[in-house]
Predict the structure.
Amino acid sequence: KVLIDVPCSELAEELGQSQTKTQVLQDTLQQVLDRREEERQSRQVLELYLQALKNEDTILSKAAESEAVPREEMDVVDTGTSSTDAAAKTALNDHILTALKEKPAPELCLDSRDLELVLKEDVQALALALRWDVQKAEALQQACDQELSKRLQQVQALHSLRSTSKGKKSLP
């Protein structure tokens, strides 16, 4: 990079070469740097693709698991009785509230369905259930929204890659 940034005339003088040869050398170095950057970006795209595949497999296995064994939390019915426990005033089940309270980055620990539940929850009720202030609950909802958006982008990227790869397979 340093050799590319040096003016051609100065580099030619220092190397004892003609400016033409020095310019060819700088062009070649720039091409090498460009190729390395393209390779780095390609690796990043492949890593995202593999991560999206892994996430999709995880989501599919969790979906199959939840269909096979219904969660106990889903069987709980709100009877409308009032309770002094703040957690009873939210639609969130115990495992979500526990994760929100105890995990440093709970949005990374919850599945997409749970993230959607957190986002749908009223901020006041969420803050009350977690015994937090409203700003902290809002920040949590924003983090959950960002994580859900990121997951959606990964799924969209996966679908895009799949449709691209399917198109290439059908070519002769």
Q: What stands out?
A: Confidence is low (pLDDT under 50) at residues 78-88. The chain is about 75% helix and 0% strand. The chain has two domains: 8-64, 94-168.
